[in-house]
Design brief:
single chain, mainly beta, eleven-stranded antiparallel β-sheet, five-stranded antiparallel β-sheet, 7 helices, 41% strand, elongated
Length: 481
């Protein structure tokens, strides 16, 4: 027995000597690790087929109060179809117990009511021309503060009859300078969408009192549930983009411009401002997707293997990946295990760009949970650098060396993997008996992966694509033990 142990030790030392004395090395594109040259004597290179299948992503994406909200519609994406975003929120006074119109007992002349939204950017066509419309939410609607945000698949909120205001918006003007007249000053600002609303809204707000609506936040919401900002598809002349707005930004306000009249004289020019304060969590961003015919066919064909993958950012789609040959690998030192996906070019890639980050996790069916890739992913580390998921030269790559090592050496579970472009993830990170999830509140909402919501889509070559040079695959470089 001692001689066998000694012989095994000599072989292992010899392998390690060969590994470290190799002059030729290979460099991974993920993590910058040094890989010994494949000589087919000690170090080998093999490629495993993967089985890929398109699936709908069971997405629980939530938009928090200070995150960008999508507004608009894309209906000409030939590969992915239609995406539509609408916003609901409750602007409110800056405080309670005081009237926001300080001279309400004088004669007030309402000049205008304006909803101003803090603009941040566009996904899609910056030349889009879309009509945005503002309604008051139904006062009986079940719409309240939600610190974790409403899900994007939440039902659209009912609204009161009657349009408060609308504007046909050319997206190229959203970052133009606008002028806000306050008292004797004119303030120049940028990145603000301004929509004029019906002035009768001001009369209601002036009529409220500190004994009722302005006494507390909860009482105010019984009088005014909030505003719905929607896109009118029929009145939009170029439905090719989503505009993003920050409700918590300084430029987001419900503004009431008015003059104070005493007798025949105008004694003051004022503005009452209702914002979206740090303690206001009444916001919702509904996102609806309708897939294009080809994408829908792939998602609903019922086949276990697809030659193309359609990955839309949250709330979107995903692909499952199975690697049947993984269990058949010999016990070895795994130097590289790189799962790669080539991009299938589409005619609109320049307009509707791919997601900033694809994400890979695993389905732990035995424990009925989604987990991060064992041993390779760590919430405390830079997973995009260590694990991968960003596109380079038309290829998405993922480093699964430690996970593959656990399968071939310790005979641990070989999971079905999931590829997606999530808004967030709250997959469990499992290490032995330890289970780690993102820290609160991310434990509820998830760790940020892509931003903003609904931005990005990409078509990839699947595992059984006829093009052997492009199809999805797992490349492994290993040294036999």
């Amino acid at each position: 027995m001692k001689s066998k142990v000694k012989a095994s030790s000599i072989v292992l030392i010899g392998l390690l000597f060969t590994y470290f004395s190799c002059k030729k090395i290979d460099t991974t594109e993920i993590g910058g690790d040094l890989i010994p040259a494949v000589d087919n004597v000690h170090t080998f290179d093999t490629v495993l087929d993967v089985i890929t299948d398109n699936q709908f992503l069971d997405d629980s994406a939530r938009i928090l109060r200070a995150e960008l909200h999508a507004l608009g519609v894309i209906d000409d994406d030939l590969s992915f179809g239609k995406t539509k975003g609408q916003i609901y929120f409750t602007p409110a006074p800056e405080g309670w117990g005081t009237h926001p119109f300080p001279k309400k007992d004088s004669t007030l002349i309402i000049d205008s009511v304006v909803l101003a939204l803090s603009y941040s950017g566009v996904y899609g066509d910056t030349n889009a021309v879309e009509q945005f419309e503002v309604y008051e939410m139904d006062r009986d609607a079940l719409f309240y503060n939600n610190i974790y945000g409403y899900r994007t698949d939440t039902a659209d909120v009912f609204v009161e009859p009657g349009l408060l205001g609308s504007k046909l918006v050319n997206f190229t003007t959203l970052n133009d300078s606008v002028f806000d007249k306050r008292k004797r000053d004119t303030v120049k600002t940028t990145n603000q969408l301004r929509i004029q609303l019906d002035k009768t809204l001001a009369n209601r707000f002036i009529g409220y009192d500190t004994a009722n609506a302005y006494k507390s936040d909860s009482l105010f919401r019984t009088y005014f549930k909030g505003l719905a900002v929607r896109v009118n598809e029929g009145a939009s002349t170029k439905r090719t983009g989503l505009a993003y707005f920050n409700l918590a930004g300084d430029n987001t306000r419900l503004l009431f411009y008015y003059r104070v009249q005493n007798g025949s004289a105008i004694t003051d020019t004022l503005v009452a401002s209702f914002g979206f304060s740090a303690i206001n969590f009444a916001n919702s961003n509904t996102i609806r997707r309708t897939l294009a015919p080809e994408a829908n066919t792939y998602l609903t064909n019922g086949l276990p293997a697809d030659d193309k993958l359609f990955i839309a950012a949250s709330p979107g789609t995903m692909a499952t990946i199975r690697i049947p040959g993984l269990k058949g690998l010999p016990n070895a030192i795994i130097h590289r295990a790189e799962l790669s996906f080539n991009v299938v070019p589409t005619t609109q890639d320049a307009l509707y760009t791919p997601p900033g980050q694809l994400f890979l996790d695993a389905s732990d069916t035995a424990n009925k949970r989604i987990i991060t890739i064992p041993y390779d992913f760590n919430y405390a580390n830079d997973f995009a650098t260590l694990v991968g998921g960003k596109v380079s030269n038309g290829v998405y790559r993922f480093n699964l060396a430690r996970y593959v090592q656990s399968v071939v050496t310790r005979k641990e579970s070989d999971y079905t993997l999931r590829l997606s472009a999530p808004w967030r993830t709250n997959a469990s990170q499992v290490s032995g008996t330890s289970v780690v999830t993102p820290y609160p509140p991310a434990s509820k909402t998830g760790l940020q992966i892509n931003n903003p919501i609904a931005a990005g889509r990409v078509v990839l070559y699947g595992g059984n694509n006829a093009d052997a040079t492009k199809k999805a695959k797992l490349r492994i470089i290993y040294t036999k033990i």
